[in-house]
Amino acid sequence: MNAQKESMPKILFMVGSLRAASASKAMALSMAELLADEAEIAFADIGTLPHYNADTLDNPQVAALNEAIRSADGLVFVTPEYNYSIPGLLKNAIDWASRPAYNSVFVNKPCFVISVSGGALGGVRAQSHLKYILNGMLAVVFPSLEVVVPHANDKIADGRIADQAILSFGRARLVAFIDFVRGQAKAA
């Protein structure tokens, strides 16, 4: 590994949809490609997690998720909006990683939220709910202009978001987030 790659922050993407042709996945893949020179990118596998159950103490998928979050310098959530909120899949992953309460892998973890929707509002309600949840776990939600992708299904080509205005806007916000993450790492 070269020195530049070693100094790049590690950014973990969490996509709130399992659908193969998901607009959230298309947006996450587009952003990851645009940020390849800025950060080391990884994707969390939240689809293999069992339903949250506090009686379950040792689960390898949960341990892998917690380690992925712990080792990341920052998290980028890309969520669709289901019934005016975040999908159960994403909430389930967050619930697993939020334990123990107020001492989880989310504490002081820089987070950025992107929302995607087939509707005109671009998932802003889901984005608001997700930020509220992250604040409750003592994560550091990056203050920024919100990245929302309205009518997202119409913006997909070859499994990626093809709207250049959204991609440019999103990339600029995420570069600012990555700069923030670098600053947080230096301060630690």
Structure summary:
By secondary structure, the chain is α/β, with parallel strands linked by helices.
**Could you tell me the number of beta strands?**
8
Domain count, please report it: 1
Instruction: State the end-to-end CA separation.
Output: 24 Å
Largest sheet: 6 strands, parallel
Name of the CATH class: Alpha Beta
Gyration radius (Cα, Å) is 16 Å
* Low-confidence regions: none
Helix content: 40-55%
- What integer is the average pLDDT? 95
Q: How many helices in DSSP terms? A: 6
CATH architecture: 3-Layer(aba) Sandwich
CATH topology: Rossmann fold
Strand-pairing-aware structural class: alpha/beta
Shape: globular
Proportion in β-strands: 15-25%
How are helices and strands ordered from N to C?
HEHEHEHEHEEEEH
The CATH H-level homologous superfamily:
Flavodoxin domain
Your description of this structure?
With 188 residues, this protein is of the alpha/beta class. It has a single domain, classed as Rossmann fold (3-Layer(aba) Sandwich). The chain contains 6 helices and 8 strands; from the N terminus they run H-E-H-E-H-E-H-E-H-E-E-E-E-H. The protein has helices at 3-7, 23-34, 60-71, 88-97, 124-136, 164-187, and strands at residues 10-15, 40-43, 74-80, 110-116, 140-141, 147-149, 156-157, 160-161. Strands 1, 2, 3, 4, 5 and 6 form a 6-stranded parallel β-sheet that branches. Helix 2 links the parallel strand 1 and strand 2 (40-43). Helix 2 crosses helix 6 (164-187). It starts with a helix and ends with a helix.
What topology emerges from the helices and strands here?
Layout: H1 3-7, E1 10-15, H2 23-34, E2 40-43, H3 60-71, E3 74-80, H4 88-97, E4 110-116, H5 124-136, E5 140-141, E6 147-149, E7 156-157, E8 160-161, H6 164-187
Parallel strand pairs: 1-2, 1-3, 3-4, 4-5, 4-6
Antiparallel strand pairs: 7-8
